[in-house]
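#help-structures
NK: newbie question, is this the right format to request a structure? protein is Leucine-rich repeat protein SHOC-2
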Amino acid sequence: MACPSAKMQMHRFEMIDTFKTLTKELLRQEHLPKVLQKKEPHRVTDRTFFIDGSNQGLKTIPSEILALKELEEVHLENNQIAEIPQGIQQLQNTKVLYLHNNSLQDLCRELGALSSLESLDLSGNPLVISSLHVISHLRTLRELRLYRTGLTEIPTSICKSLHHLELFGLSENFLESLPKEIVNQTKLREIYLKQNHFEVFPCDLCVLYNLEVIDLDENKLKSIPGDIGHLVRLQKFYVASNHLMSLPESLCQCSKLSVLDLTHNSIHSLPSSLEHLTELTEVGLSENRLEKVPRLLCSWVSLHLLYLRNTSLHGLRRSFKHLVNLRFLDLSQNHIEHFPVQICALRNLEILALDDNKVRQLPPTISLLSNLKILGLTGNDLLSFPEEIFSLISLEKLYIGQDQGSKLSSLPENIKKLMNLKELYIENNRLEQLPASLGLMPNLEVLDCRHNLLKQLPDAICHTRNLRELLLEDNLLCCLPENLDHLVNLKVLTLMNNPMIDPPIYVCNQGNEAIWKYLKENRIRKVMTTKIQAWWRGIMVRKGYGSYEELLKSRKKGKSPPKDKKGKKAAKGKPAKGNKK
């Protein structure tokens, strides 16, 4: 199961506020290069406060932009700018300057003259460390982002001089430590150090009492110092993918902690003192050596998201039912054989991942999960499709593909009871046919039937008018329903590794448009054939050859067509009335 809302990293990245939804002042044609012009440009005056020149292929900052002295926010990210011109010092009113993902190496000293600058983003540039001292002159700076800039160290001048920093972004570099001068950053609230080379936790961070977010994911940390307890305002603590074996008792003093990510470490248990962290809403414990759910975890009744993937669990504690505020629960890749009935008490649960366990059946009480929208059961030992699922009236996505475990041989007609279902993933099974009731599911948008034994599709599938994706590769299909092109919203249709005849493989390989054209032409041919047959029947009857069916029978027996009575008399030499002698 791959469910974007089910992954911790979607919640952990710092959201960079670019104000892209604000109304943008467009650039005047006669003043700016064509690369920055819009189709219907508005007049730009000296009172322009916002400008967006991102993604324009710029190799330098246009002088026309530098002439707009009232600019407060400038977006020049995702270009090919190799240097900052000296004229940058004219932007004395600029508060936000985004230059990330360019080709900058050196920073000119004039950059340090921007006396109003509050937010600077230089991420994704191959910066020379020696040129970074210019940043230390930006005394009003509150946000500094230097992600992916190849840094091996932080210039001490930055930490000494910038006393108003609230956000410091240093992720995806080669840092092993922070300068001791970091203690001067007393107003710092967020620091991002993900994907660096820290083997020791930077202890100087523990004196920055205003810290609210620390991200040290994907480093080489072996322990967390006891002084972490001094950070009483800490709200989000990310230390996933390190080498931690335990946590300090003092972490309980971080009473405002709401997000704790310990994913992919070597933690076997949690200190009992952590039960005092009553404001936790999101906890990541996936890929640790737990074997049992920590007892104290069941006291965190404020939890909304809990990740316990691949933790060697065989079941849940009885007290697990107390986590009544859970919205998301990931129990995938464990050793659970029986569906934990404690889960059925979690009435607010919206997403449940039980993929890659050993579950054989579902309890009737699963119907109590009336708010469940996403259910993952891929890779279990289900003997047949669990009809208990049909009571989940709010279900929108169902993952029941069997890449491992038992294979399902049929999909019940009662699938139509899931009227809110939008996505059905039933790949890697042994289905030979699909139920016609799929055509009665008005909200179905994605149907994944790859790697099954399907020989044909029901004609009723042409009524699922909202279907966007139909994945059918690696089956036994040789034809498609003749009205499949009526699915006007269908954008993705995969038919690889099927013995297709109608349409033929060469048509299928050309994509949807070729398939739709073939189906339409095929329908026209059938209509014409029907009309010709009707016309021919009329001719046969009018000429006295009998009904069309009798004609077919005589042809099968090899006889000549029957003649009318008048014709028979004429054959005996007795001309019928009206015939010439």
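mod (FA): yep, format's fine, and the tokens are attached above. Residues 512-542 form the longest helix (31 residues).
NK: thank you!
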